[in-house]
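Narrative of accomplishments. A recurring question from our advisory board has been how the design workflow behaves on a single, concrete structure rather than in aggregate. To address it, we present the structure tokens for one chain from the evaluation set, followed by the sequence designed for it. No filtering or post-editing was applied between the two.
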């Protein structure tokens, strides 16, 4: 049997970069696993996760999806308890996959969140598998520059931070946007990679994708935060 890896995958830039680096490193990634949380989440990227299906088709790796009905976090009394509860369906899905494949480990796109990473590490320990987290502890601007240099095309799909107005919705994360984000980091503390949930992204093209994702959308803005409402998505 071969060692099989599962990429924890939202379609956003960080999980996509972790997948890209895993493939570059020769890891045998045979599944993508996408969690579709209900409402806000402490553990997962939330917006536009349904686009992971198109991304998986373009990447050519089988997708496993964890649906909102699998969550049982209603009784959580604090952030830690909710994070633990949110992890359970993903761990159950990986445990089930371990019956089908020779599961060696998972990839994760965490950069600085000890809240998320400690729980994923604990899960990996319980399952007896490895964790590949190539973004962990790296300098944010250097990571962003590496993504752009590799040919990632990244669209901002949600914003929720001071200084990030409606004009950021649908904006391409390029060198000019990164320069603006560095200025916003100085003025408002906005993380250059949006690690604190300040903004969320979707990768529409990358070296490991055979076809780009083309989007049509409308913007929804409430005066302080907003998101893209995807009206159509297809592979180019």
């Amino acid at each position: 049997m071969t060692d099989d890896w599962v990429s924890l995958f939202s379609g956003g830039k960080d999980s996509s970069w972790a997948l890209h680096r895993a493939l570059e490193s020769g890891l045998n990634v045979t599944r993508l696993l996408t969690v579709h949380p209900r409402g806000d989440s402490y553990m997962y990227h939330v917006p536009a996760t349904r686009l992971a299906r198109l991304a998986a088709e373009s990447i050519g790796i089988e997708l496993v999806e964890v649906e909102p009905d699998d969550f049982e976090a209603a009784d959580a009394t604090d952030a830690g308890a909710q994070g633990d509860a949110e992890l359970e369906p993903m761990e159950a899905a990986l445990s089930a996959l371990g019956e089908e494949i020779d599961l060696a480990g998972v990839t994760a796109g965490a950069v600085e969140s000890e809240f998320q990473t400690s729980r994923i590490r604990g899960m990996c320990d319980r399952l007896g598998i490895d964790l590949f987290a190539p973004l962990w502890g790296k300098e944010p601007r250097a990571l962003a520059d590496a993504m752009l240099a590799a040919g990632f095309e990244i669209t901002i799909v949600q914003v929720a931070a001071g200084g990030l107005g409606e004009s950021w919705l649908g904006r391409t994360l390029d060198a000019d946007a990164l320069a603006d984000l560095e200025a916003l980091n100085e003025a408002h503390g906005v993380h250059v990679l949006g690690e604190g949930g300040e903004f969320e992204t979707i990768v529409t093209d990358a070296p490991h994708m055979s076809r780009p994702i083309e989007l049509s959308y409308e913007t929804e803005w409430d005066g302080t935060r907003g998101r893209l409402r995807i009206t159509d998505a297809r592979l180019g």
